[in-house]
Amino acid sequence: MPIDIRALRYFVETVQLGSFTQAAAAVFVTQSTISKMVKQLEDEVGQPLLIRDGRRVQLTDIGRVVYERGLQALSVIEQLQLEVADVAQLARGQLTVGMPPMGNLFFPSAVRAFQQRYPTLELRLAEHGGQLLEQKVIAGELEVGATVLLPGSTPEGLASRAIARHSIWAVGPREASWHGRRTVRLGALKHQPLILLDEGFALTRRVLAAFREAGIEPHVVARSGHWDFLAAMAAAGLGTTFLPEPFLAHLDTGNLAVARVTEPALDWTLSHIWSTDRYISHAARAWLDVCHEVLGKQTRVGAL
Fold it and tell me: Which residues form the HTH lysR-type domain (predicted)?
């Protein structure tokens, strides 16, 4: 039994609005066109679908079945049209990806691989702190973003995929008592002056939470939004900071004490996030796949 999709769409519109006149106005055709197409659908089904009651319409039992299945069919067609257009966008569209301030060390190789694979797709990187970035993804202002998530802390309404996981290291002045060790217990830093990133950074929240769980009141003496400045202050003897392992490769560790934090061991996990309630474009999926291929090898914990 072939069914005209346009007739099905006009029928659904009529049922939703409860009127041939209103349906005609909504789809910009005449009322006679709506009536003709609905009658055509009834002929195709072989049963009356609507009971005309003055200016209002009501569904027959068969009409209710056609309406409910019609909604599903039209939804599938709409999704098909969206995905077809979306695939075309890979050749000429643009994608904006949210990026955390500390993530710039991780993504150049992924950006290069993405541009090589999709040379005509414009990639824009929008830098935001983790909490603001999460809010923008939830609100639909960003389709996908990268952020640092605390263990078990994926916000409601978001899905996440880990990109890289690294251990957190203590970085302190060369004269620190634990200089020369490979590891340092969190409790050994109990009385150390601490210089931390601003509280908007998940790294800081992770470290402070660990101190609280250990029953230790951290002695924070300074904060900054720049990790390299924290390292410079540590080298100047102002206190101890905390950085994920890959950042150490960008420091002159000869002037610093560096040790992996243990008891408890602390991890820093960089993850992509996207909304579970919205359609994810092929461009965004392509970005996620490229990052998984290129950056998935970066997961590393416990070694330098």
Answer: 3-60
Q: Assign 301 a pLDDT band (cuts: 50, 70, 90).
A: very low
pLDDT in tens, 207-220: 999 999 999 999 99
Residue owning tokens 């000869």: 254
For the record, the structure tokens of 177 come out as 């008592």
Strand 94-99, strand 122-127: pairing = parallel
**pLDDT of the residue at 84:** 67
d(CA 134, CA 123): 19
pTM, 2 dp: 0.64
CB 240 within 8 A of CB 171: yes
In the beta sheet, which residues pair with residue 164?
270
Distance CA 56, CA 253 (A): 79
pLDDT band at 150 (very low <50, low <70, confident <90, very high): confident
Residue 300 is predicted with a pLDDT of 41
- The DSSP code for 152 is T
- Reading the block at residue 242, the tokens are 């905390």
Domains observed in the chain? 5-91 (1.10.10.10), 95-149+274-290 (3.40.190.10), 164-268 (3.40.190.10)
